[in-house]
Amino acid sequence: MRDGDEMNDEQADRLLRPLRHEPEAPAGYDVSRAMAEGRRRRSLRRWSSGAALIAVTSVTAGGGTFAVAALRDEKPIPAPTTTTSVAPSVVAAAPDFPRDCTVVRLPTDGVKKALVTSGDPEGRYLAGRLYGTSVTTIIWKDGKILARPEMDGGDASFDDINRAGIAVGSAYVGDERQQAYAYADGKVTALDGEHTAASAINDAGVIAGAIGPTLSEAPARWDSVTAAVERLPLPQGITVGRARAIGEDGTIAGTVAKDSSKTESGYLWAPDGTGKAMPLPTAKGKKADYFWPTSISGGWVLGRAVFDTEQTRDFAALRYHLATGRYEELKTYMGYDMLLAENGWIAGTMEQPMILAGSRKVALPRYGRLRDYHVSSFSADGRVVGGYTSDSGSDGVGNEPLLWTCR
Amino acid sequence: MPDGSDSDYLAYVHGRAAELRRTAYLLCGDPHQADDFVQETLTKLYVRWPRIAKMDNVDGYVHTMLVRVFLDDRRRGWWKVRLLTGHPEPPPVEGNPEDGPVIRAALAKLPPRQQAVLVLRYLCDRSVREVADLLRCTEGTVKSQTAHGLTRLRTLLGVPFPTAAVSPGRR
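ok -> structure tokens follow
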């Protein structure tokens, strides 16, 4: 096989040996972002295939044509900070909607790749992640860098921030153990409990999250940054779950399952801790297999109904009225990342970032020529949106952290 | 029992991501680019997870995805180099042929598939059979790509041709 002109394996080993290194810097990939982007691609596949036809038809039959127009997306790509929404000039008492929306890239101290992970209800604070730096977490206030607080551990992320600028999140420390952290008064402190992750904080400072090893977490709550962690009560036979969103009144929305081998579905805890399973909604003429809440605001829980078959997973967007226990199907599916404002508006991403205000769809301007967007924060008044881009370029996937502001 | 759920995906990724990142790093030599390759691979993996989770050899499939992400990326850049220089044979690399950066620069001038074959065989210690599986090609192709890759690498580095090659070789 080999002749005198060829190298043997030992010589080849020796030639290449100086390249045998382990990667040094802490890992910069982000599993939750891979899942989020993966979900978006899954849903885009459906929109562009047979299932999309059904979805578009039902949207049109439901009385709205906005989604169809949005899917065609024939508008030219606006430049950064270009106004996309135009206020009608002669409409008296027109329903309110976001106007004159503009976009800016958030500053990152020269870091090229960064994204927004969450924002506060007032739209003044945003939290985010940086890539390729030793400190990977960042807080912005009013569009400027406020702090780059260091969180101990890998995959560090602030997943929510409140009006007082208190951010909560988690990182993987040591041997793949999650630890919940809070950023308050200029410093990062670990929340009570080992194997913990914080997902959400309200303006009263109550924190919702999870406790337990990564695959057998149970829903948890902290009454404040310094409070002891408490497990949220679960019904008989239910062992895993996670609190995902918390309303200003302390109502918590999360997901639970019998055990970690099962798919989780929606569950609610009242401020006094009493819990109840969210009923499974019916949409597209079918009863959903699961409901996944994503956001809670103004007495409603926004989420996705999940329809599974052997090979596919389809979604419908619905909102659940806490007071009456009834679901309403949205006329438009706004993507996996949709978020709810107190006034009922919804921010999300379809072909581009959007705000759904009643039946009016307002497209948020693109940043330059970039095409892939995620929405990760939405203010209570529905006028400030945080998010980021994830277009693939010649040097891999890039992320630009963005702030949209509307009147 | 993998059922295609998110918790299965997380379990798999947390168990295997470090190995994926190591392979990505050895393929490209840059930790940030390695992270990008892993990020894209994990995203693609999640998109197909409900189906992939039921396969026998998830690891092999995922590493094939990673190598393809690397090849896709390299092919774009490599063709650019070829078009700009106008000829397929790049000039020799300057510097000590035992220095990591010099070897990495020479390796980057090889066609992407030859880069992948050499890295997988000699840095990731994969057998010819395993590399053939990962690249979805025959063992003969892996052997010929190995020979061509090493010959070009040696030429680029100015390393003398070996006089004695007596080795059973890894198969």
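Chain A has one domain: 26-405.
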